[in-house]
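Team,

Forwarding the record for the chain on the shared tracking sheet. I've put the sequence and predicted structure together so nobody has to dig through attachments.
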Amino acid sequence: MTTETPKTLSKGQLAYETERARKAGKSLDEWLKQKARAAAAEAQKAAPKPVKKPGLFTRLLDRAHKPL
């Protein structure tokens, strides 16, 4: 039962994940891949969005409020 994971699991963790995979009706490899995909999707969702360039009216108002 060797799996290629970025983090090696201890015996207890491996037994726990094996039990969860069995309850889900999947193999351990499928379970760990699904878990990694879900974690990656969550990380991508939590990533900050790029800053949007201000629009025309916002730029004009900012320029109008600056001193001469």
